[in-house]
Amino acid sequence: MGDERFFPDDMPMPSANAETAGWWEACVDHRLVVQRCLACGTTRHPPGPVCPACRSASAEWAELPGTGTVYTYTVVRQAFMPALAGTVPYVVAAIEPDGGGGVRLVSNVVGCDPEDVTIGMPVEVVWEDIAPELALPRFRPCTGGGSAR
Amino acid sequence: MSQTTRRGRQACIVGVGETPYAKWGGITDSSEYQLAVRAVLAALDDAGISADEVDGLASFADDRNEATFMAADLGIAELRYSTMSWLPGGGGACAAVSNAAMAVETGQADVVVVYRSLCQGQFRRFGRGPGNTAPGPVGGGAPKPRRTPGVRGARSLLEAHVAFTMPFGMFGPPIAYAMVARRHMHRFGTTAEHMGAVAVSTRAHAQHNRRAIMAGRPMTMEDYLASRPVSDPFRLFDCCLESDGACAVVVTTAERAADIRRGAVDIVASAQGTVRGFGHGQYSNVSMPDDDYSSAGARSVAARLWGRAGIGPGDIDVAEIYDHFTALVLLSLEDFGFCGRGEGGPFAASGALEWPGGSLPTNTHGGSLSEAYVHGLNHVVEGVRQLRDESTCQVRNAETVLVTSAAGVPTSALVLGRR
C-alpha cells in the first residue's frame, strides 16, 4: 500500500497552519481523521480553531474507518496544468466518509474507469505516498475487504 | 436624520463606464491599473460629475488597484470613505455597490465610485494550477508549481484551505461548480440542454452589444453541445469568458442626482452575506447540507432582498444574473424565486431568459459568458442601462431590475428601479 502513484510529481503540495497541521500529520501515518469537538461531538472539516456549533476549542482527531460514498463528482477532461496532460481524464469527487458526521472531503476516485463513477458509489481510501512527510488520501471503488488502511 | 433629509440621501446610481473588453491577454497597451482609472473617469464623465467631487471609492474581489493609490492619482480632494468587500470573488459586486450606497445614505460620503479592473492576461488566470504561486508573466502563461514535496507552512488562511483541494486536482471554479451541477442533475434531472439554454440565449444577446467579446460569434444549441468538454458536465461554453477590462459605477444621493444629465437609477434594496458554514474552505460549500450544496447559496440573501425591496420576483422586469457557469444561473433563478426548487432547467429551456420574447429577459448584455468577465460589475452597469433605456437589448418599459452576484459563494444582490 502506498507505492502506487496516481498523479504526477508536479501537483501542488499542501500548506498547513496551526489548525490543519494535525490532519496532515495523520495522513503521513495513513490515518484518515476528522476533527471532532470534545464538548459537543460535532465534526468539522476543514479543521478550525473552535467548534462552529458550541465554540469550544477542545477537539480531537477522530479516526475514520476509511470507507465512504461518492456524494458528487466531476470528470476533469482539460489539463489545467501541463503536467496533467497524461493524467486527464481524472475524477474529482466529494466523498462522504463513514463515521464523519456528515462532513465531506474533496478527493479523487482512482482505480477505475472515470465513466464508471456514480453518485452513491461506495469507496475506500487508498493512500498515495508523495514523500516521507506527505501522503494523500484518495479513494477507489470498494473491494469489499473493509478498510484499505 | 429627518425624514426629508433621509429621502434626499437615498442612494442612486448616476453614471456607468467601462473600458473596451478583450479576451484575456488582449489588452497590452494599458495596465490593469490604467484601465481601472479609465473606467472610473468614464463613469464620472457619464454622470457629468467631476473627479473633484468624488470622496469615496469601493471595490471587491481583492481588486489589486487600491483605493488609496486611485485617490491620490485622481487628485481626489478628500477621501472620506473606502471599502473592500470581503465576499469572495464575484460575490462582492453588488455588495460593493451596497457599501457605497450605505456610505452616501449615512452621510459618510457624497459621491462614491465603485470599480473593478481585471486583466487576467497581465496576472494569473484563475484556476491555472497552484493558487499560491507568484503571478505569471504578462501575457499569461502557467505559473511554475512548487516541486518541494511535503507539507509546509501556510502564509494565509486561504492557502491552508486550498491545500484540501489543489493536491487533488480541484484547481478552480469550473471543477468545483461542475460538481454542484452534477448534484443538481442527479437530484432534479437537469440536462445539458437546460444549461445550454442559458449559454445560447446569453450569446444571442451579445450579438446586439458591440462591447461584447462574443459579438459576431453567434451560437446554436448544436454549437454549444459540440463544444469541448472541460470538467463534466461542463463544456467550454458553460464557462464564462476570461478577459481583460474594467468598469465602474457612480453612486450618490438623490439630492445630488436631481440634475444628472443621463438620469439616475434608484438602488431600491440590497442584501449580502451567507448562512452558517457556507463559504468555509474546500470550495466553500462542500460540506453543506444537500439543499444548500445544490443551490446558489443565495436563499437567505434573496429573502432579505425581497423583504427590503417590498416586492418579489414577479415584479422584476429584467434580471442580470451572475453567470460564471450556466448551471449556476439556473440555481440562482431558483434561489431568487423565479421558479421552484429544481425547476431552473425547464424554466430556462422554456425560453424565459430570452430577449425580447421571454418572461424574464436575463443577461441582456451578454453576461460573463459572452460580454466580459469583470466579476459581475458589468451586470450592474447593464441593469442601469436597462433603466435608462440604453440597453442594446432594451426591455420596453423596464421599471425594476434584479442584479445578482456570484453563486456558490457568499454573495450579494441589488434591486434597481427607475426613478
What would you say this structure looks like, in words?
Chain A contains one helix and nine strands. Chain A has 149 residues and is mainly beta. Chain A is globular, with a radius of gyration of 16 Å. The N and C termini of chain A lie close together (8 Å). Chain B is an alpha+beta fold and 419 residues long. Chain B is built from 15 helices and 13 strands. In chain B, strands 1, 2, 3, 4, 5, 9, 10, 11, 12 and 13 form a ten-stranded mixed beta sheet that branches. Chain B has a two-stranded antiparallel ribbon with strand order 7-8. Chain B is globular. In chain B, 61% of the residues are buried. Chains A and B meet through strand 1, strand 5, strand 6, strand 7 and strand 9 of A and strand 6, helix 5, helix 6 and strand 7 of B.
Shape of chain A: globular
| Strand count of chain A | 9
Based on CA atoms alone, the radius of gyration of chain A comes out at 16 Å
List the total number of helices of chain B.
15
Structural class of chain A: mainly beta
- Order of strands across the widest beta sheet of chain A? 7-6-5-8-9
Kindly estimate the percentage of residues of chain B that lie in beta strands according to DSSP.
Answer: 15-25%
Sheet/helix structural class of chain B: alpha+beta
User: What order do the SSEs of chain A take from the amino end to the carboxyl end, as H and E?
Assistant: EHEEEEEEEE
Oligomer: heterodimer
Mind telling me the C-alpha Rg of chain B? 20 Å
Low-confidence stretches of chain B: 129-147
Number of E-type strands of chain B: 13
Largest sheet of chain A: 5 strands, antiparallel
The 3D shape of chain B can be described as globular
**What would the average pLDDT of chain B be, to the nearest integer?**
92
| Protein chains sharing the most extensive interface | A-B, 52 and 56 residues
Distance separating the two termini of chain B = 22 Å
Query: Would you tell me the overall average pLDDT of chain A?
Result: 93
What is the helix tally of chain A? 1
